[in-house]
Amino acid sequence: MIKFEVLKKHSHSSARLGVLTTPHGKINTPCFMPVGTQATVKALTPENLESMGAQIILGNTYHLYLRPGHELIQSLGGLHKFMNWHHPILTDSGGYQVFSMNKLTKVTEEGVKFKSHIDGSSHFISPEKAIEIQQALGADIIMAFDEPTPYPSDIPTTQKSLQLTTRWAKRCKDAMKSENQSLFGIVQGGMHPSLRKESTEQITSLDFPGYAIGGLSVGEEKHLMNDMTELTASLLPELKPRYLMGVGTPENLLTCSSMGVDMFDCVMPTRNARNGYLFVTGGKINIRNSQHQRDPDPIDPNCPCYTCKNFSRAYLRHLIMAGEILALHLLTLHNSTFYQTWMKSIRQAIEKDIPFSFTWSASE
Amino acid sequence: MIKFEVLKKHSHSSARLGVLTTPHGKINTPCFMPVGTQATVKALTPENLESMGAQIILGNTYHLYLRPGHELIQSLGGLHKFMNWHHPILTDSGGYQVFSMNKLTKVTEEGVKFKSHIDGSSHFISPEKAIEIQQALGADIIMAFDEPTPYPSDIPTTQKSLQLTTRWAKRCKDAMKSENQSLFGIVQGGMHPSLRKESTEQITSLDFPGYAIGGLSVGEEKHLMNDMTELTASLLPELKPRYLMGVGTPENLLTCSSMGVDMFDCVMPTRNARNGYLFVTGGKINIRNSQHQRDPDPIDPNCPCYTCKNFSRAYLRHLIMAGEILALHLLTLHNSTFYQTWMKSIRQAIEKDIPFSFTWSASE
């Protein structure tokens, strides 16, 4: 089981500094969890993740269930051992991927029928099955199986969906067997404040050890994401960890930390890196841009990563233009380090109780 | 300039233990040079190469000339600084790639006209140009521009070709300006013993600080490669380093070390790794094979690499089947480490003057 302590509250915002203790170690919050979809954070070794200060990573139940299969991973000692990551892991429930990776899903009260994006084979995941898979994987924190509400959705559709999510959350809780794992509930409710409130009340009444805010970063305007996050975070129990799923930019992490969110995950740093988009102090650069062709400077002189300590923008641009695998590794290392450093700055500001004076904007 | 010392001669073969001293450090021979075609050994960092004991790597003049350009690399401080490899580098002359990467080359006494494999643009490389490019790159050891003889080639064609290579070698020597770089001559002569002898005599008469055996591993039968290597090595000066270009399997390295070859390079370990073929004690495995699906063992329990110390065959198979970049990194790390370990075993056997008792066969 997990233990969550709020060490300090920020007097300039609703942010809080915390420590989340899991069977595989402690996590300083607010934290960012690198995404390890297929039992690897793309292009990084566990050693790389440790050296950048990542304390927890995320695995995707949907992908691991399909390939290599949760039973295979269980027979080899579980996900930690399989991927050689001996620190905390959180697995999502597969709910989001079942819907986002597949056009032809069929949802019933019982669960979801879908076809594999790999080979077209038919599968069925129920709340009980999602728990069974996640127990086989053995992550420290596992997630309830939910139905993410598409955006936009009207009030009746959203309400029907959040109520199904609540019934499924109850079934997930009932299916829990392991005492080493902690199950988080997920709040839905779309972009409707009244329904966010309704979902939060229903999910928190089931008394989970932690809560996620789901259904955001799905194409809505930024102010809607902020409004829904702020509202939901304010309604969640103060002494339980709050996890905002699938979000986001450095700016999002700062804003939502200030609203009292403790945990984040997003493919943005890793996926952007593979496309040559790099996070730097204050903004973002495209390393493919010809202005970097002869640039002897590192990506970001403030960054402590191996890439920034050793390689010029000119070299990194050459690698990615030449299609070299090393580019993907070095650029992912940088972006992922940037995110960890960013969260560390947020934690330090809360610790020292100073306002969040640093900013980041995608438009720069 | 370089200095080469033969420390010990093997009483069981013609192998010798040596130390090659260059402006960027010492190299224990016989050695294997990982291939860093485009200013990176594919999928590995300089840190990885250091940790596996690689002391020298190879860069490809043809590729670097076309992209990002030797002048760009020179303006950024040379190839060592550009790729952050502060140990010895050898660059080939581009001769082999000009012919192997291009169908439409035009050879004259002056040099070779060819079209870029990247964008079809027209280029011309002469012996003088090859030296100019290699001086801009700044490798410790650079190679004379040669015409590799296709296989098979009859005696008149081969003889004409080796004589052109000799005239070009002389022009390369005359074009040398830097005292920090050492130029190696390349022996050609195809599969004809009399012409190997002729080429060796001509090239050695130009008095280079080291010599390469070129034109092998081009599709000939194994016994021909061995015969030509043995003959050429026996004719080369004893106190100069001998480099067998583009060879080969672990078995080849062992056999040709025993013939007195000091230096090797080949894309085999890195390219095989990316295709899932892994070198192990005694043979080779295909990690994609279903027999590895649930195998908890490492690739090779005798291997000291990060991959073998931390990951199962089952995990590595999963990564490559799922198309994960980390597979390319971890498998390349293993194969490259295997080659370094293999050369270390060869050096230790010479040092202790015991017969080469270990074997490796591709057929296992």
What's the layout of helices and strands?
2 copies of one chain form a homodimer.
Chain A: E1 3-9, E2 16-22, E3 25-29, E4 31-33, E5 35-36, H1 46-51, E6 57-59, H2 61-66, H3 70-75, H4 79-83, E7 89-91, H5 95-100, E8 106-107, E9 112-115, E10 122-125, H6 127-137, E11 141-143, H7 155-175, E12 182-187, H8 193-204, E13 211-213, H9 222-235, E14 242-244, H10 250-257, E15 263-265, H11 268-274, E16 277-280, E17 283-286, H12 306-310, H13 313-321, H14 325-352
Helix pairs in contact in A: 6-7, 7-8, 8-9, 10-14, 11-14, 13-14
Name its key features.
homodimer; 364 residues; alpha/beta; TIM Barrel; 2 domains; 9-stranded parallel β-sheet; 3-stranded antiparallel β-sheet; 14 helices; 40% helix
